[in-house]
Specification:
8-stranded mixed β-sheet, alpha+beta, Nucleoside Triphosphate Pyrophosphohydrolase, about 290 residues, about 20% helix, 4-stranded antiparallel β-sheet, 12 strands
Length: about 290
């Protein structure tokens, strides 16, 4: 019988790092979706038990946000080929996946303590495959919007349906930000309008844009993805449940509801009983319920 040190399950898995210029033959078994994090490589030096793991996102507090458009980052021929290959594999696994336009975050700057500048570019969903090809700090981050929808029984959260890029994952109502038409600016009003559209598409609740108030900004620690979170005035829980049920019954196939289930949560700890969640969800709920 092998000793514990010789037992296969006690042997660390070797990490084979592939140079960026060498084509990959592996196809990831996960969708190239919003807030998805690739697996972290095995670390030869274990972390101290007393060192807390870094939180997935950080809150970026500021009084004013400027969004400045920049050219899309250039891709090498190998990167473009790999992006196309990985996207084809993702689309084959989930035909509902759509290579639509999106806003990518190239970075943020602080001209002064009360002002934040977001550098963004026009890209498409397939470019999230760069997360497999580049170091994390060299990958354009996502830009997305969410809506905190309070009711007397808690905040509304929803589970992604099979037609989405992340089926089974719990999130706030929302989605990736789409770029405005060429020549038009991307600003907070544009993001607010996008948030109200996402709320209507995912919950069936239609509200005027002006009723949403900007609540907070989060930034992913790994890829720098930015989440613009808006707060809706309280709504009756019966309304939220009725509207979502009606929306779910009216769509089938490719037109099926993007959230196949909603829940009302009254604390951040509630997320541990839901299942897989977006990386920002626990922290956003924690700040909301502690206010």
């Amino acid at each position: 019988m092998p000793s514990p040190d010789q037992h296969p399950r006690h042997q660390p898995c070797p990490v084979h790092r592939r140079p960026r210029h060498e084509p990959s033959t592996e196809i990831p078994e996960v969708p190239l979706s919003e807030n998805w994090l690739p697996p972290i490589a095995y670390m030869a030096t274990p972390m101290s038990n007393t060192t807390p793991a870094p939180l997935p996102v950080e809150f970026v507090d500021t009084q004013h946000i400027d969004l400045v458009e920049h050219p899309s980052p250039a891709l090498s021929l190998w990167e473009q080929r790999e992006v196309d290959r990985l996207w084809a594999a993702t689309a084959a696994r989930n035909p509902a996946t759509f290579d639509g336009p999106l806003v990518a975050c190239l970075g943020i700057d602080r001209p002064d303590p009360n002002r934040l500048t977001v550098r963004w570019a026009r890209m498409t969903y397939r470019h999230r495959a760069l997360r497999h090809l580049r170091p994390a700090d060299d990958v354009p981050g996502s830009v997305f919007v969410t809506v905190l929808l309070p009711t007397e029984d808690g905040l509304v959260v929803g589970r992604g349906s099979p037609v989405t890029a992340a089926p089974g994952r719990w999130t706030l109502p929302g989605g990736s930000a789409e770029p405005p038409p060429p020549g038009h600016p991307l600003d907070m009003d544009t993001l607010r309008q996008h948030a109200t559209r996402e709320l209507a598409e995912e919950t069936g609740i239609h509200i005027p844009d002006h009723e949403l108030r900007f609540w907070g900004l989060t930034r992913g620690r790994r890829f720098g993805s930015l989440g613009f979170h808006f707060l809706d005035p309280p709504r009756p829980s019966a309304l939220a449940q009725h509207q979502h049920a009606h929306l779910s019954m009216s769509g089938t196939g490719q037109d099926a509801a993007e959230l196949d289930k909603i829940a009302l949560v009254s604390s951040a700890g509630h997320t541990t009983r839901l299942g897989p969640c977006a990386d920002y969800l626990h922290q956003v709920l924690g700040r909301y319920f502690s206010a």
